[in-house]
Structures are given as C-alpha cells and as structure tokens.
Amino acid sequence: MSLLTADKKHLIFYAQYDQREAVKGISGYQWDARKKAWLFPLNKITLQKIISTFPSTTVKDVTHKMLNDFAFDLQMANNNKKKHFIINEQYRNWLNAPFYDHQLQTYNFFKHMNICADTSEPGTGKTMIQLGLIKDRIMVGNSFRYLIIAPLGLLDPVWKHDIEKFMFAGRFTFPIYVMNETVDKARKILQHSDMGIYLINYEKVWRLEDELKKLNPDMIILDESSKIKTPSSKQSKAVLKLGLNTRYKSIMTGTVVSNSMMDIFAQYKFLNPNILGNSITAFRSCYFNATAMKFGGAVFNEYQISEKGKLQIKQLIDPISVSWKKDKCLDLPPLTVQDIKFNLSKSQNELYQTMKDYMVMQIGESTYIASMVLTKLLKLNMITSGFIQNTGGEDIEEIKDNAKLKAFIELVETIPEDSQVIIWGIFHHDIEMLMNELKRYGEKSAVAYYGRMNQKEKTIAYDTFKSGKARFLVAHPKSAGMGLNLSNANYAIFYSMNYSFETYAQSKERYNRPGQTKNMTEYRLIAKNTIDEAVFTAIEGKKEVNDYITSALS
Length: 554
Prior knowledge:
By secondary structure, the protein is of the alpha/beta class. The protein folds into three domains: about 5-70; about 75-325, 3-Layer(aba) Sandwich (Rossmann fold), CATH 3.40.50; about 335-550, P-loop containing nucleotide triphosphate hydrolases (Rossmann fold).
C-alpha cells in the first residue's frame, strides 16, 4: 500500500521497496533517508502522475490543503498565460518609448505574474519590459524597494541610463542607488534601506548578503541570470537565499542554456524552488542520462538531456516563460558572417605542434577533470593569437612571425574608414597587442574595454566609442559581451574566442540588436588545422565538452 502526504515544500510519497523503479519514472524525485520516503515538487501535475502510476495510493487530506496553499500552481499559470499573453494597446506608451508588439504582449502577460522568465534572444528589448513592471508596481503603490542584480558593466551605462530615460524622463522621481564601487561603499548605501531602485553586481551579493536581506526588496530582477547557473557557487547560493521571501521575481537572459540544460536549474529555482525541485542531483538524475567519458587517462561523466526530459521541463517552465526570437519580432538588417582562414607561420606552427603533443602526452598519463583540460587548452589559443605565457602569467613572449596579427592588419585595411569596428579578444595580452597595432590609425582611434580597467575607465571608453570619437573598440567578451548596446558598430572581428556558445552569442548581440540601421559583417580569424577551428565548430554545433577536447587535440 502506498501513502501520499505533503508538507509546505514537498509531496511526500511512501512506497514499497519493489516500487522504486516506477517511482523514478516520475519527474523530480528525491529520496529522503530520514523520512524513508520519496520527495517530489509540490504541484498538481506531479500529484496526478503519482496517482496515475500508483492508483491504489491513499492520499491524505493535508496533501490537497498544502497544494491549495502553495503559491505556484502550474494549471493556474497556464491559464494566466493563455488569458494575458496578448497585445493590449492600453499599455503601448506606458514608457517614454513605445513598446514593440512582442514587448507589449510580454508586458501584459508578466504584469499579471509574481514570477516570470524572459529568455528571449539578446537584443529583443527585455530590459524595457522589466522597466514597465517596476513602473507599474511603483504607481500601484504596493512595492517600494527594487533590487536589480546584473553584471557590473551594465549597472550604470544600461540600467541607470534606461531607468532615467524611459521610466521617468524628469516627470517622476524615484531614488536610484548604484552600487558599482567598493563593498564598503555599497554597505553604506544599504544601511538605510530607503525606498528606491538598488543596482548591484553579482560578485557583491554574497559579500553583502546580510545587508541585502535587511533591505527586504519587494522585487528582484536578475539580469543575465545565467550568472547563477552553478548552484554551488557563493554568489548563486546568496542570490537563491535572497529570493526566498521576495514577492516579485524576474530572470532575464538571452542564453538561459549555454552548454547544458542543467544550466536552467538554479535560475528557475530562484523563481520558485518547486518548479524543477530543490535538488540539482535529483533534477539531473530525473531528466538526464549519464555516460562515462574517457580521454587518455582522464575519466569524467557526461550528462545528456533525454528527449522525455526536454518535454517535461518545457511543460514545467513554459507557463511562466517567454522566449522571443529576433526574426519573429524585429526587422533587423541582415548579418553576414565570414571566416578569414590562414596558415600559422613556420615558427608559430612548430610551437603549436610541440605544445599540442605535450598536452596529449600529459592527459594520457594522468587523470584530469574536463575543466582542467579546458584550462590547459588555452595555451594553444595563446599560440594562435601570437604569444606564449609561462605559468603565473608574468612572463609573456610574443611570437615575432605572428600570422594571425598579419591577417588582422590586412583585414582592417579592407573595412571602410567611416565604419566603426568591435574587436573581440579573450586574453588581456590580445587587447594590449591589438591596441598597439591600431595606433597606426591615430593615437585616439581605438579604446579598450577589459578587466584591467576600472569601471570609470570602462565608462569613458564606452562613451567615447558610442559617440563616434573612436573608430575601434577592442574588448574582452567577459567585460563588454553582456548588456552593452554597441549598435553604432556594424563590423565585428573575433580575433580570438573560447568554446563557450554563451560568450560568443552575447558578444555578437552587442551590435546585432534594435537600433542597428546598417548591414552588419562579422569576421572570424581562424588558423587552419588548429584549436581555432575546433572553437567555432563547437560554438556552431553547441558541442559537448568532450567533443571539443577531442577535436582540439586530434
């Protein structure tokens, strides 16, 4: 005989030992050794699946009471989306710039939701929708403190700028607190917990967790929410705790899944821990198939989402999510992508082959996890970029006969002088080397945007490029690849790139977005028969880690 009951967080299912395999066929299961029972997400769909799988189950009355008290109801959310995911002309001019149709449709839907996820492609205007929600809740008068967590580089040039420009424009004042300097200065801002909009970067959240809890925000928005895709990281844990008692919660990201469907777990757990469950282990075992992968002496598990798992996850997250593709909602100019392929110089190729052979030997003789192998592979990227860096990063030697740098110079010469260009490089030395080369076009023709600059220097560089005073922006994807509007540029050059699809997608969406009025051209510099080819093959096919490693060292 099976028994089903519930507490405030879970459905609790007591079953016979010989029923365990059937139990594991139900989404979101987790074994609780203390209770000697199976725990499931608290929602009606899971309840129905348990009852249909085990028809003779006794369901205690408290189960239905807990379900009715539970804030997230999947069927209710589904009905809400069907009713409100419509264009409502009443709100077309709610902000100081009119909503596009897809924004208006999304805003009208989210307006009736306490939790929501906008996973639309970068450049579709997700920020505007959230600004509309904030303004609505300010005007209604039922919430007073708003916390926006975003990458540091987006706090001032994107969020503060857009709030002032599109929400108020001098007609309505509401305090904005930007915590983009030191932790101590941010702590002082939070001491008073006054009403207002608070902007903070992810890296400060875990350091200011206690102060942010005291702020007790009525609404939290996670911009680039994929920043918390690793549930075990300090910043992810802190963000998840902050969201536990918050009334309104939104997540925004154009790359909700960058490498694996497991990336979505923590992001949706922030919205409501019962949508996909509380445990990443249970989530993984329920929806993914594990395969042991070997490369030389290295052994690591590769997790692949099952087709059934994809459908089940989609069923659970769709009622609170919107995901627009640009070609379905915006008429952007065409984007042309062109690969510039070249051979390494003789000296460069000799260094490359020696390093590759050494890595294959090392990996074959020892045991490494995938992340360690990926770190080692960066040395191959460095050689194709044109330099060698010893352990510790202090001793850098440039390769005199650098084929990629020559290809870069030749390429820049073909680009019209009246066009602005973004150049991406994944190493600090890439940035510095390219900045030095671009001096030939004038000392002030190029500005850099990367990790060795403070926020004030980055803001000046951004403004200089946006105003057209600089022709070139030489940037690191981790610094400038998220959130910035660089639509004034219509040429981009990927001098170097890592295998991350998320990094690549975010970078290209800085210019392929609303506001772009010109035809765009993207160039990718690729050394033949090297890791450069493996990088873009992995990006285009969203390859798994093991495939990328094998390709890079073959």
